[in-house]
Write a structure and sequence with these properties.
Shape: globular
Number of helices: 3
Mean pLDDT: 77
Low-confidence stretches: 121-135, 142-153
Distance between the termini: 53 Å
Helix content: 10-25%
Structural class: alpha+beta
Strand content: 25-35%
Radius of gyration: 17 Å
Largest sheet: 6 strands, antiparallel
Strand order of the largest sheet: 1-2-3-4-6-5
Order of helices and strands: EEEEHEEHH
Amino acid sequence: MSSRELPPFIARYEIQATLGQGAMGTVYRARDPQLDRMVAIKTVRNDLGLSEENFAAFKMRFFQEAKAAGRLNHPNIVAFYDVMEVEHTPYIVMEYVESDTLANLIKARGAPHRPGRRHHATDLSGPRLRARPWHRAPRHQARQYPHRHEGAR
């Protein structure tokens, strides 16, 4: 299968479109036929150039982080529905949020900046975010944006 060709299924999930692609993997929009709902599936490439031992350690951390993220419940963080490994490739199945790309939101509204916050580089063509003041981000991304709370020293 070429990198542009969509797999028809990942486990029971019917793959419908590619939402984003990066150095670590691909995010797909898919349909869960058992629950009749749309989901986002994040895949991790199994050809990252890691030794077999390092890839096994990487997958273990991936699943531990998914388990921890799956315990979170907040309106601004997408829900995790499933985590699995199919043919040596790890996957996270999460809530699909219909919206525009972050690049288009920034183009329309300007880049957000708040004094006292650290900003991180991001792939602006990646996962879709909700088009409203507070966006839902995948749980693993939410922890990558540290900030000072009001009154914190």
